[in-house]
Amino acid sequence: MKIAVASDNGMVAGHFGHCENFNVFHVESEQVVKHEVVPNPGHKPGFLPNFLHDLGVEVIIAGGMGGGAVQIFNEKGIEVVVGVRNSAKEAAELYLKGQLESTGSICHEHQHAHEDGCNH
């Protein structure tokens, strides 16, 4: 299994598409066996969910995410966990322990960024 965490400076990024990079945790037998940092190749509508799917990601963790990205992840069978504010490593570890819950912090309108809880 691969868990990707949208990250800025090692912390979960406030908005998935605008993160610096993705911390990708390779998991075997409920343990992280490898960790890599993949630079964000750029925010283009619909691109990042497909990019992460092509990397073999099965779970994406972020602070907030637009509804379009959530829909594509759902179509690809990738679990979306949003509303997270931990370090990337801690978020992945909490997910593996079953202690990380999505708050459903979906960004609906980018022009109202500060009203919907997303940090753009």
CATH 4th-level superfamily? Dinitrogenase iron-molybdenum cofactor biosynthesis domain
Give me the Rg, rounded. Answer: 13 Å
Q: Which H/E pattern describes the elements? A: EEEEHEEHEHE
CATH topology: Nucleotidyltransferase, domain 5
Structural class: alpha/beta
Total beta-strand segments: 8
Low-confidence parts, pLDDT < 50 over ≥5 residues? 109-120
Please state the overall shape, judged from the principal axes of the Cα atoms: globular
> Which architecture does the CATH hierarchy give at level 2?
2-Layer Sandwich
User: Could you give the distance between the termini?
Assistant: 29 Å
CATH top level is Alpha Beta
Tally of individual helices: 3
Domain Dinitrogenase iron-molybdenum cofactor biosynthesis: 9-96
Pfam family, one: Nitro_FeMo-Co
What key phrases describe this protein's structure?
single chain; 120 residues; alpha/beta; Nucleotidyltransferase, domain 5; six-stranded mixed beta sheet; two-stranded parallel sheet; 3 helices; 22% helix
Structural overview:
With 120 residues, this protein is of the alpha/beta class. It has a single domain, classed as 2-Layer Sandwich (Nucleotidyltransferase, domain 5), CATH 3.30.420. The chain has three helices and eight strands. Strands 1, 2, 3, 4, 5 and 7 form a six-stranded mixed sheet that branches. A two-stranded parallel sheet has the order 6-8. β1 and β2 (11-12) form a beta hairpin. α1 packs parallel to α2. The radius of gyration is 13 Å and the shape is globular. Residues 9-96 form the Dinitrogenase iron-molybdenum cofactor biosynthesis domain. It holds the Pfam family Nitro_FeMo-Co. InterPro entries: Di-Nase_FeMo-co_biosynth, DiNase_FeMo-co_biosyn_sf.
